[in-house]
């Protein structure tokens, strides 16, 4: 396991798991959101985004945290493992809520030098609310990732599905660095 893409819906715990995995296998941790988002919540153009992904994935090992399905052809060309964090709807919603509140209170910058922070208005009152996105996409993502598990397009990749924090902890515990 040298080139890993951790996927899952927003709030599933991809980042936390990915950071722990990267440390365990001594690989760089790469967060796709950090590559995609510019200052003031400006989105990268696909051509720029794709090139930046190509650049960071040119390394011999990595743990890539993120979905962005339009990048699958790039991400999975050399990936040897996909780990799907597939926690229950209630668990994921709770984690998303807890994370969002923590970020709003702390005012932490999400990605260095972007100035991007979560706010109450952006998180709960905006048409682009992360919660609206979650409610619209949780089931769709689950169906898509379920199909992915058996797709012939990625038969060269080991796909692992983790359905609870206990499973994730056990998986990490059993990895030999």
From TrEMBL:
GO terms for molecular function: kinase activity. It holds the Pfam family SKI. The keyword Transferase applies. Transmembrane segments: none annotated. Keywords: Kinase, Transferase. It comes from the Bacteria. This is Adenylate kinase. The lineage of its organism: Bacteria, Pseudomonadati, Pseudomonadota, Gammaproteobacteria, Oceanospirillales.
């Amino acid at each position: 396991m040298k080139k890993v893409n951790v996927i899952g819906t927003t709030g599933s715990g991809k980042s936390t798991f990915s950071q722990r995995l990267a440390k365990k296998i001594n690989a760089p941790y790469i967060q796709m959101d950090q590559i995609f988002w510019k200052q003031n919540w400006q989105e990268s153009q696909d051509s720029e985004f794709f090139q930046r992904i190509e650049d960071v994935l040119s390394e011999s090992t990595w743990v890539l945290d993120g979905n962005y399905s339009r990048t699958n052809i790039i991400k999975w060309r050399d990936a040897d493992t996909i780990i799907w964090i597939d926690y229950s709807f209630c668990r994921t919603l709770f984690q998303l809520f807890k994370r969002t509140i923590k970020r709003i209170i702390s005012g932490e910058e999400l990605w260095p030098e972007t100035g991007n922070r979560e706010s109450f208005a952006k998180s709960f009152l905006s048409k682009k609310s992360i919660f609206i996105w979650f409610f619209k996409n949780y089931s769709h993502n689950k169906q898509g990732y379920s199909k992915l598990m058996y797709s012939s397009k990625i038969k060269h990749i080991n796909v692992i599905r983790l359905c609870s924090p206990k499973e994730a902890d056990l998986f990490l515990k059993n990895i030999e660095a």
